[in-house]
Design brief:
By secondary structure, the chain is an alpha/beta fold. It is built from 14 helices and 8 strands. The protein binds the ligand Cc1ncc(COP(=O)(O)OP(=O)(O)O)c(N)n1, the ligand Cc1nc(C(=O)O)sc1CCOP(=O)(O)O and magnesium ion. Keywords: Magnesium, Metal-binding, Thiamine biosynthesis, Transferase.
Amino acid sequence: MNSNNSTPTLRVLDANANRAAEGMRTLEETARFLLSAAELQFQFKNLRHDLSLAIARLPRLELLASRNTPDDIGTKTSTPSEQSRPDTASLIASASSRVQQALRCLEEYGKSIDVEFASQVEQIRYRVYDVTARLECLSLTTDTRRQRLASARLYALIDAGDGVDEMQTRMKLLADSGVGVIQLRDRQLDDRTLYERACVGASVARELGVLWIINDRPDIAFAADADGVHVGQEELPVTAVRRIVGAERLIGLSTHDMDQVQTAMGSCADYLGCGPTFPSTTKQFSSFAGCDFLQSVSDYFAQLEVVPRPAFAIGGITTDNVQQVADAGFDRIAVTSGLAGDDVTKAARVFLETLKTNDAPVAGR
Ligand SMILES: Cc1ncc(COP(=O)(O)OP(=O)(O)O)c(N)n1
Ligand SMILES: Cc1nc(C(=O)O)sc1CCOP(=O)(O)O
Ligand SMILES: [Mg+2]
């Protein structure tokens, strides 16, 4: 170790070691609690650990002795941007830049004290560039998907059709008609074909600006880079689905009674399907939750203190009965056959206009 340990240099090192560690901890907590990103959380934990190992090379007693917070003129200056953190992405951006700047200071000032210390910090700084970019990206994608979901009123369920071209044409027609979410629900296809259609659909949906959800299959939703997956009550629990699809993809959960809705509100599901509302030509049911169930969901959501999840009424909804859905307080619907006929554009217009004029309490805002 070099003996050039002047007190000002040690003060810079002490202050920036703390700044870097605090920033890393902020990012780690964001990965853990806001974005459920276990792998990134693990990376930040390792970075903090490696930073403390590097700092352990410095003379701790002298570092502590150099600390003089009351006389530090820097503790009294803050900019307006330091006081405001409007969303997760900007919180990540500012914590990342604080960590990067602190590491650069440690590296530059550390060179005069211990070259090996400076070189270890340099390696940490490169890893920080990568991990912080991934975290910021994740948060931007997550926000965007959930924002798009929040503005969706019409959700269409489609099968894969007779081929890629037909599926693509159908998706375009639906998107042009105002559908915000499209689900691939096809129980006839083998896994390979389902996966291929899911991949094509994901890129078509991206171009069209609609969300692309895969029914039943978190593995395929993840592998095909879809926006999310929809699961039913007898399928994998949403906690397990979340582990497969990651924090940024959407998870939809079917609910058929109030117990399921209340449980879903405590889960990591992003939206609910509520039904069956009416008899359906797509799927057979022996009993129907009906509009009474929809009304109970609306009433329950209206008295919640937290923001409810977006909830889509489903099951046999047509242009003839959608008014009853709106009267039960819903302004979002998920539909298969009601958007599968010849005049999709007209049906979609009727749906949207009916849902828009809903002045009853609205489910899922
Ligand atoms: C939006 C939406 N809501 C409900 C369902 C039904 O899901 P599930 O109960 O798992 O039944 P299947 O679709 O798997 O037959 C859905 N798919 N989408
Ligand atoms: C797949 C499905 N699930 C439902 C539920 O209530 O959970 S109703 C349904 C069928 C939806 O298609 P259509 O609009 O043609 O009735
Ligand atoms: Mg299912």
